[in-house]
Amino acid sequence: MLDLSVIVNNFTFLVVQGLLGLGGFTGGTLRLAIPAIALGFVLGIFIGIARLARAWWISLPATLYVEFFRGVPLVMVIFWIWFIIPQLLRLPIPEYGVALTAFVVFEAAYFGEIVRAGIQSVPRGQVEAATALGLTAVQSMRFVVLPQAVRNMVPSLVTQMIVLFKDTSLASIIGYVDLTKAAQIVNNREIRPFELYLFIAVVYFAFTYSMSRIASRFERRLA
Amino acid sequence: MRYEFRWEVLWSGQSGAWLLQGLLTTLAISSLAWLLAAGLGILSGALRTVPWKPLRAVATFYVEFFRNVPLLVWMFFWYFGVPPLLPQVAREWLFDHGAEFWAGMFALGVYHGARMSEVIRSGIQSIPKTQFEAAVAMGLTTFQAYRLVIVPIALRLIVPPATSESLNLLKNSSVALTISVAELTFQTRQIETYTARAIEALTAGTVVYLALCVGIATIMARVERRFAIPGLIARGG
User: Fold this and answer.
1) Which of A75, A172, A197 has the CB atom closest to B80's CB atom?
2) Which residue from A minimizes the CA distance to B207?
3) Which of A145, B95, B144, B216 sits at a 20 to 30 Å CA gap from B172?
């Protein structure tokens, strides 16, 4: 009953185009996920630090940003970016740009919370010692607090990366050809939904599960 | 940029009715899926801590496989992949009774059951082992110890993480629009399509989601205080 030939025949399209993004379409799960994770984390660092700022006009916008994006579904954010950016810039941007912007903006709120918790886990005495040594606020954040905070953040960061990796499947809603969309395209032609969706489920699983395995090994080394 | 807001599109014509319908569908699919997720989560979360390996292995497989694959893929799998394998009678019944709703509800429930399971497992593991040993020493069977002692305590411990997981479920119900369940995000898109007023429509949907999330979080903060076990919760207030 399970007809795997549909997977074998379309393997190149599914994996090379859908997963890696090398092919006729602008697409690829990894081509979206890797920059989204990197940029989302960078923006998240700023947001996390801003939430802890003493000046209310810095911390309040950051708090509102986090609370807003954590109260709204990602699908909604993708549609917002999809409609708003062309209106603002008066030019059409490709699905890749829309999806990347939406993921970075959305996930930065979650990364921001992780960064904030990580920074708060560093004892106050460390900052005081850094100040006593003559470091400026920026220097003590850069050389003393963040390196220690990152170590404490590793487990939640990896969890969030896995979440983001899975979330990239939602880019298929606006027509971006990632692994999920590639399976949909093949399915429209071959009508083998059970095999195709089970196959991409296994591919996603292989990635996310090995990410979490590597992370837990890494954590044991750090601890 | 010059954009003339026309908020009246939200209450003129059918928009209001669509929004309300979308809200009701979101609430219906989320609460049914939540019941399924809570049941599966408690069952598999408890099984992952029992002292019998085959049961643990089954529960681990369920949790790891279902939570590590995107919800969207599960939506497609349960809606497009599974019904063709059902017997003819069941399939016809399903498609006469809103198959997309049931498939979406099932996908959401099974996916979040696996995530809920992790919350419950960590709750159970935070209970001192002596509780279980004391229950067994009192003459309870393993099943009774779980049902009467371990699970009730765990459920009271996990109110905060379970709340944020429930809110995730509510927000993730928006993914069901991909299999054309007419929930809130779907209806927001529909208003946008009919009125061509994207910003107004998206604002309406966003505000409803925010209100739901803030409302539930406020109620659950009260529940949390009411059910907190004094001395057992680290961050209680």
Assistant:
1) A197
2) A72
3) B95
- Classified by CATH at the fold level, domain A5-222 comes out as MetI-like fold (1.10.3720)
**Residue B205, exposed/middle/buried by CB under 10 A (0-12, 13-18, 19+)?**
buried
Contact B198 A76 (CB under 8 A): no
Average pLDDT over residues A74-92: 88
Task: Mark which residues 89-118 of A lie under 8 Å from B by CB.
Answer: 90
| Higher-pLDDT residue of B194, A221 | B194
Q: Which residues of A touch B168 (CB under 8 A)?
A: none
- 8 Å CB contact of B68 and A194: no
pLDDT of residue A168: 95
Say which residues have a Cβ less than 8 Å from residue A48's Cβ, sequence separation at least 6: A111, A112, A113, A114, A115, A116, A118, A119
The answer, yes or no, to whether residue A223 has pLDDT greater than 90, is no
Q: Which of B130, B87, B108 is nearest to B174 (CA)?
A: B108
The verdict on domain B22-227 having CATH code 3.20.20.370 is: no
pLDDT at A24: 73
Does A80 contact B at CB distance below 8 Å? yes
In percent, the amount of chain B with pLDDT more than 90 equals: 73
Q: Does A83 touch chain B (CB under 8 A)?
A: yes
pTM of the full structure: 0.91
